[in-house]
Amino acid sequence: MGFIADSLNRIQPSATIAVSTKARQLKAQGRDIVSLSAGEPDFDTPQNIKDAAKRALDEGKTKYTDVDGIPELKAAIVAKFKRDNGLDYKPSQVSVGTGGKQVLYNALLATLNPGDEVVIPAPCWVSYADIVLLGGGKPVFAETTIENGYKLTAEALDKAITAKTKWFIFNSPSNPTGTAYSAADLKVITDVLVRHPHVWVLTDDMYEHLLYDGLEFATPAQVEPKLYERTLTMNGLSKAYCMTGWRLGYAAGPEVLINAMRKLQSQSTSNPSSIVQWAGVEALNGPQDFIAAHNKIFVERRDLVVSMLNQAKGIQCPKPQGAFYVYPSIKAAIGKTSKGGTVIKSDEDFVTALLEEEGVAVVHGAAFEGSPSFRVSYAASTESLKDACTRIQRFCGNLS
Ligand SMILES: Cc1ncc(COP(=O)(O)O)c(C=O)c1O
Known about the structure:
This protein is of the alpha/beta class. The protein has 14 helices and twelve strands. The longest helix has 22 residues, at 289-310.
């Protein structure tokens, strides 16, 4: 009998964390590495949010709190959903956890039974499938294509849904593709979901505020009110508020689900850090203008990266409208050999050789169930983006 639980053998360590860790190690060894692998803004947390945390400390707000969030934070979240999404929730419908990842984990672990299926459009964020597997469920990937801008079609969704489908996970703007759905795009999807009343919707709106070119954000329960009773609308502070290390995420949905999530959290982490929760109140209620200022910079960087990558031999890079990722295809590079002698049979070979030969860290598409591609995070300085794209161009130019 093995010491480590069988359930753990079903999952993989996070590939994005693995690449970022390797890049850090190589840097520590003195190698010249540009890392575009991390999914976090390079901007610092706004000062008013930091000050709120300091105030909370000084005021002794350092004790256990309600398991799934202090009333002040729940009130701020209720107001946020009303203000930004036109959604009405009561505080009893809100759950706060230690990062969006824990909120997702709670929702899935609290509801999945063996054999339950979860439909996930692919390419997708690395953790969805592993959390589903840990919960004993079965991920079912609904494929999207580069030709369709990585947007899910009604046909692909309909085909993926079976009598065993418990959840459909939706993520716009998307990690890893940056694809963002307009309300009209999303209606195509919600129309299918309305026809399958046994399927619950888990929408991961983590990148809500990182939207460009005037596109307006849309979320399933807003686009199709008929889905409100079976939708968990999840969001977090990590990306738009530059708070990845603080660990704060939240969701709102039907009480039956929120209560189950609270029960699970009460036997794992209990409340998210009390200090961070007070910072979260300030983040949601305080000034929001820094978001537009950041987005202006993200757009410039996106345009730079898309243009430079499309000039690299064998790379096709769409221009997405959200998040801070681009997801170029390397289809034309498969079968070629790098200058260092690596035969590129997969996107993993491509990113490994790129890291070894040119010192650029990006994440292979297989980690996101979308090959042959790789993900570039452009949440990095313009200077390092130029440097990295020049190296990628050189690497591709040397493929033969
Ligand atoms: C799509 C998506 N959802 C959820 C998360 C988790 O965010 P958090 O840092 O709040 O746990 C991430 C973080 O990378 C993400 O990209």
